[in-house]
Amino acid sequence: MRQQAQRIGMLGGTFDPIHLGHLRSAVEVHEALSLDQLHMIPAQQPPLRGQPQVSPEQRLALLKAGIGDTPGLVADDRELRRDGPSYSIDTLTELRTEYGEQTRLIMVIGHDAFMRLTHWHQPERLFAFAHLVVIARPGYSDSLPAPLTELVAHREVDNVAALMQRPSGSFLSLELPSRMAISATYIRERLAQGKNVRYLVPPPVEQTITHLGLYQKRE
Length: 219
Ligand code: ATP
Known about the structure:
The chain is an alpha/beta fold and 219 residues long. The chain is built from ten helices and six strands, in the order βαβαβααβααβααβαα.
């Protein structure tokens, strides 16, 4: 029997659509942190960006198709079942209640999302519920603005074992082995131009997009 506390990760996003940059990062972060499960959670109404191009249900269907039977990854629709804006702090509160106080709860975000963290709803409260792990993403290497440096000051650890010492409250920067310069924006642009997205998304996602005619430019 496993003696150590459970390790649960959360990777939120618009997933408009899910792509191999998300999925390979999810698999590698699952491995690097020895997670029991990584919840991939599509946002209903992303508070900091415009309306997504396809419905939340379609984004969820694409996410499920993308994950398939990948061990340790789960498509979690809790934010789609909640009314109003999708605040990560509410999601972390729910996960903490479900998994209990000793579970190591880890919020995973890419470097680009991290750069906007101080604009999120109550960012300072995140650390009461979870650790924060930021993953490097090609094309995003800006140095941290002062309010962000302040937010993570005294929380930074430099390895996974140190992060897992306690249930929440620490910050770790991770460089995963496969860094992929794939973005959902690029995929939407290509589809709107009638171009293929082969090997940017898993085959079942490509098939669903084609089958439902998603992201095509409407005249
Ligand atoms: P868009 O281009 O529409 O802004 P995106 O590709 O950045 O979308 P999101 O759904 O906004 O995708 O991202 C969800 C999370 O996954 C964010 O934390 C983001 O930083 C991270 N992420 C997205 N793409 C990658 C990638 N290629 N490598 C690592 N992390 C990524």
